[in-house]
Design brief:
Layout (H helix, E strand, L loop, with lengths): L5 E10 L3 H5 L1 H14 L2 E11 L10 H14 L3 E4 L5 H15 L4 E3 L1 H12 L3 H15 L31 H28 L5 E6 L5 H8 L18 E5 L5 E5 L10 H6 L1 H4 L7 E7 L5 H16 L5 E6 L6 H11 L4 E2 L8 H19 L1
Parallel strand pairs: 1-2, 1-3, 3-4, 5-7, 5-8, 8-9, 9-10
Antiparallel strand pairs: 6-7
Helix pairs in contact: 2-5, 3-4, 5-6, 6-7
The structure holds guanosine-5'-triphosphate and magnesium ion.
Length: about 375
């Protein structure tokens, strides 16, 4: 069955001296396309502009906005999405620009709203639902205008509909009240989690970490009795699962899936999901999963590393795993990866290859940890 999609224009703005982002433009734009696709937004075109500095009124230049106005008119499109987070004032300016220029009300979304909409769509557990709603309301609060919440304006087409959607129309005071209610509910869940954590203190805990869609849930299923959600979509996992993994007859450990990472994860989402992400802090071993079939895997790996550093603040024993080797040319890609990241392991979680080597490596790291302790 064909899903109803909403057409939109995407906008990516880059700075002239940000050579890394310019080089990465193609893959970043394709990530942008797929993010939009998850919430049924069909990006008809991505307009890119390279500038000396971001425009303080519209982020993008006025000339570009005028160009975009024509496309919106010609193709009868009502939604534009910036591939960056926008300040509240800028978003309003852009909306007002279109109202004046083409006499149409254009829905202006930014990257943060897009990512939060995906989280809202995928939230299944009650904790994840509370977390997403909290993030959306925290983001919305300083952006409320007399017109009502922007996120809810797309509701009719089904996009961006998620937990909290109806709440977005209520006034600031009620939103604040709702925020403190959500926080208290989450606090309760967190207290329960702490109790559970104490309960399993004597077990070795391993966390799987990596960019979204790298194959973390597939790996946890391959190593254990399964049950984790696997989808070819970003942010499939919002509620991590923990499973027992048998390393040898006498060695077992607990292994946890985590929320996938992405560049510029919205601060509000990061805050809201902190308790979920903090599981990483309590792990004994971190396993980084890198999708070797992604052209810019090195950058994605750096993104994950930076996020983990922010959470743990310290070095933990880590194992670096390249996944999806079945998709790449054995010689070219793996030799390059081995050079960049020595001592890494190559697997296909899907085809279940390299898993014994990974288990042995985990066992070695555990043994090293124990011998250091004694
Ligand atoms: N070809 C191939 N595909 C894989 C492999 N591992 C995972 N995939 C596919 O990659 C997609 C994402 O896998 P997931 O396990 O859901 O990825 P994840 O890291 O848990 O993703 P999020 O929970 O969204 O962050 C799915 O379509 C998997 O079937 C692999 O080794 N080879
Ligand atoms: Mg997953």
């Amino acid at each position: 069955m064909q899903k109803d999609t909403t057409p939109a224009i995407g906008i990516t703005v880059l700075l002239k001296d940000d050579t890394a982002s310019i080089l990465n433009l193609e893959t970043d734009n394709s990530e942008f396309l797929s993010l939009a696709g998850v919430v049924n937004i069909e990006m008809k075109q991505i307009v890119t502009q390279v500038r000396e500095s971001f425009s303080s009124s519209y982020y993008v230049g006025e000339g570009k906005l005028s160009e975009i106005s024509n496309i919106l008119l010609e193709q009868e499109i009502d939604v534009i999405i910036f591939n960056q987070p926008l300040k509240a004032g800028i978003k309003k300016n852009v909306e007002q620009y279109f109202e004046k220029k083409i006499k149409r009300s254009i829905q202006v979304l930014d990257r943060n709203e897009l990512i939060m909409a995906i989280f809202a769509l995928h939230a299944r557990s009650s904790e994840a639902k509370l977390q997403v709603e909290l993030a959306q309301l925290e983001y919305l609060l300083p952006r409320l205008t007399g017109k009502g919440a922007s996120l809810s304006r797309l509701g009719a087409s089904g996009i961006l509909r998620g937990p909290g959607e109806t709440k977005l129309e209520i006034d600031r005071r009620r939103i604040k009240k709702r925020i403190s209610f959500l926080k208290s509910q989450l606090k309760e869940i967190e207290t329960r989690r702490e109790l559970y954590r104490k309960h399993r203190e004597d077990r070795v805990l391993i966390s799987l970490i990596g960019y979204t869609n790298s194959g973390k849930s597939t790996l946890i299923n391959a190593l254990t009795k399964g049950g984790a959600i696997v989808e070819d979509q970003v942010f499939a996992t919002l509620s991590p699962v923990t499973r027992k993994v048998f390393l040898t007859d006498e060695h077992t450990a607990l292994i946890s899936d985590t929320v996938g990472f992405i560049r510029d994860i919205p601060a509000e989402l990061f805050e809201a999901f902190k308790s979920t992400l903090e599981e990483i802090k309590y792990s004994d071993i971190l396993i980084y999963i890198i999708d070797i079939s992604e052209r810019n895997w090195l950058e994605k790996f750096h993104v994950s590393r930076r996020i983990v550093d922010k959470i743990t603040g310290s070095d933990k024993p880590s194992i670096i795993v390249f996944n999806k080797v079945d998709l790449v040319n054995e010689n070219e890609e793996t030799i390059y990866a081995k050079n960049e990241v020595p001592d890494s392991i190559f697997i296909s979680a899907l085809e279940k290859t390299g898993l014994d080597e990974l288990k042995n490596k985990i066992k070695d790291v555990i043994q090293e940890k124990i011998s250091k302790k004694n």
